Amino acid sequence: MRYLCLIYDEEAKLAAMPQEESQAFMREYFGFTNGVRESGHYVAGEALQPVATATTVRVRDGRVSATDGPFAETKEQLGGFYLIEARDLDDAIQVAQRIPSARTGSIEIRPVVDFSQQRPSS
Amino acid sequence: MTGVDRDAAGRAREAVDAVYRTDSRRVLATLIRLLDGDFDLAEEALHDAFAAALQRWPRDGIPANPRAWLVSAGRFKAIDAMRRRARFDARLADVAEHLASSRTDQELGDEDGVEDDRLRLVFTCCHPALAPDARIALTLREVCGLTTEEIARAFLVPAPTLAQRIVRAKAKIRDARIPYRVPQRADLAERLDGVLHVVYLVFNEGYSASSGDSLTRPDLSGEAIRLGRLLVELLPEPEAEGLLALMLLHESRRAARTTADGELVLLDEQDRALWDRALIAEGCALVEHALRSRRFGPYALQAAIAAVHAEAATAEATDWPQIVGLYDVLLRADPSPVVELNRAAAIAMRDGPAAGLALADAILARGDLDDYHLAHAARADLLRRLGRVDEARAAYERALALARQEPERRFLSRRLTQLDG
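Above: the input entities. Below: the structure tokens describing the complete assembly.
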């Protein structure tokens, strides 16, 4: 089963990190990514540009509006993701807790809908 | 129908009822495992299996192993249900066929395997990925077999709200694929903590209801103790023993905690002849065992404190230095303002009310327990013992303004009246 691990971190804190520390953080990420590739959990993963580069698009009554950034004023921002293949939620938690940002921010785990395996609603 | 047939039917019905009371949750736990964690399908299968037993046992006789019979019947009923639904979903046909061809006789005959199913059920219902409210509701519903209405009544929640919680929790177990298993050793301590916490919350709601007219709800304490016994039997970890001991030692005082007309009686004024000696003996033995393991934690320590109280013939004869010592250890293992406050009360008994008051004042000055009625009640009691009547009155009034439970409110009102007398 596939799970998306959404990585939330404080952009301001990351930006303010001394260069040495931020390089060590990146090295940790490379190490983690190699680890999940080797264990067979890895499906995909990307880091995102900061929220300042984000654009939100909506279509209402046929009219398109594109606006600056996400609206929610939260402390932590979506900064990247991993798509993983895991046996069950406990397996996914095992992987997610090793993502370096789990210590500085938070990781949201969401199961991916598999349209070929939908159960009947009962 | 002849007289003999009626007797046989009556006996079979009684047997079904008896097995339902003692074994329906075990059967459910095994069915959930065999049906790949599908709670709803397993519950449906459980009811179908009991319905089948009511039909068949009067005719065919009571089977040698009723539980295995029920699991097997439930499994066939579930396969039938899947085959019926398979007309709309081709994939279910494969699952049903796989299930029909897999052998379960060995798993059914293996008593350990079946016992593990009950433990799996507890750990799944208490999974940390479920909301805390949902964990309690799901545990009482699935593990204890309480009805949604019973749980709703006990926790003063509207039944539809509670039903929603259970539906959502089951959907999350299915959709996020929360595994149906006991956590691996590395995760066990952390996950067991969560399970023990749920059991203790259920017990406390039954032992000292958070609000309302009645001080206690014995049915909920009873369920919590049953869960505690199950955990100790299946997973004899020191903290599981500690929690069971703590619950048994509290429970042993139930008859002495209230007067005939439902008024609250504090520990030092309780008639100790009313304490249940059998529960005390069982609790004390568990505490000793847990403490000997040297891997004990906060539950075993709290149980040890309760055991010292239980062993004293009178309040005055209590070994207060030992209780203070246990609180010192507890404060290091699991620091909290409430533990500090309880330690202050024990110090007051060992060194006099002035020493206790100084500690209680310091805790309240930090603001940690300002809204906690028992903190003000404890302070009021120390002031009363020191003869500082006006300050005691103000503290009792503050406690009364914060208390939400009727018997506690009446107790505090009586204390206030006694001050004036």
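Note for the figure: The interface with chain A takes residues 40-41, 85, 88-89, 91-92, 127, 129, 174-179, 183, 187 of chain B (CB under 8 Å).
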